[in-house]
What we know:
Elements: E1 42-46, H1 48-51, H2 56-66, H3 72-83, E2 100-104, H4 111-114, E3 133-138, E4 143-148
Antiparallel strand pairs: 1-2, 3-4
Amino acid sequence: LNLSRAIGDHAYKKTASLPAEKQAITALPDIRTLTLEDQDDFMIIACDGIWNFMSSQDAVDFVRLRLEKKTLTQICEELFMHCLAPNTCGDGTGCDNMTAIIVKFNFNKPTSVLSSPKSINNKRPLSPDHTSTTDTIDNSNNKKMKILTENGTHETNSTEQTSS
Length: 164
């Protein structure tokens, strides 16, 4: 099952002879610890809507091709469009929900480039740990969005979709 920490689906969690971590669905996460190296440029965290469509290496290649010329937000949007099925008549691949986070590492940048940005619109940052996050209101659809940028700048992005 792709659902590892699902709420509900109690039938998959009731094998009395197995501990919680051995059930078909468990609330206990798989945790991997990796040591980052200077040559590591970014990390992609995504859900099965992405990983069922492309391999980890395909996703890395997709992001790396765009990293120098596009924002992380733009790359995520292109990744979603790339994985999206043209219609729902197929095997279901590309019809699942999609979530992705791309974290860009700045190991070789001077600390002055990585310093916290000044808040915009005279709003203070949420906390010292969240200085590159800003809450904004998109009045076009009345949804609150949290915008995180890769280089300390703030960008807004409409969540409206257009069709061609």
